[in-house]
Amino acid sequence: GMTADLQRLKPDVPMPKGLTIEEVKDEEGLRDWCSVMAQVFETPDYATDAMLRSYRAVGFGKDKPCMHYLVRMEGLPVGTSSAIFGGSAVTLANVASLSDFRRQGIGSAATVAPLVEAKSRGYRLGTLAAYNMGRGVYQGLGFVERCQMGIYIWSNK
User: Fold this and answer.
1) Which of 41, 119, 108 is closest to 71 using CA atoms?
2) How far is 118 from 124, CA to CA, in rounded Å?
């Protein structure tokens, strides 16, 4: 688990040429977002469909408790992130990039976009749960490790 003081956020991260970050605002964007998530996390179709239905039910827009971001490289969906707004902190989740596009700054860009939005809303604290792969990226943006957590995944295999 990591936290960051959003007042100290380093929003100017280098972005590769051709990279864009967009807020998911409609069904088409959400489908692209889910497609990237499914590829990165090797999510089975039934779980991807459930994710699509649940996020669709929450809706789109800055007035919602959750916003999703889609990162594109030359128009191709290659990365994702989400911000969950609540209480006194914003939680960053679903930071992912396709394996062929890693180590190009996509993770940093996908992390900063929701945090900039949170800061503009008056949030001062950002939280996230980091995998080892992303820890260095988050530390470079000002996140500090606060705890370690275990993840337990049930399988009927």
Assistant:
1) 108
2) 8
Nearest to 9 by CA among 146, 120, 147, 129: 120
pLDDT per residue over 65-113, tens digit each? 899 999 999 999 999 999 999 888 999 989 888 888 788 778 888 888 8
Q: In this structure, how many other beta carbons lie within 10 angstroms of the beta carbon of residue 39?
A: 15
> 34: which residues sit within 8 A by CB, 6+ positions away?
48, 51, 52, 55
Helix (H) or strand (E) holding 33: helix 27-41
- What does the alpha-carbon distance between residue 69 and residue 24 come to, in Å, rounded to a whole number? 5
Tokens describing residue 153: 């995944």
Q: What is the pTM of this model?
A: 0.86
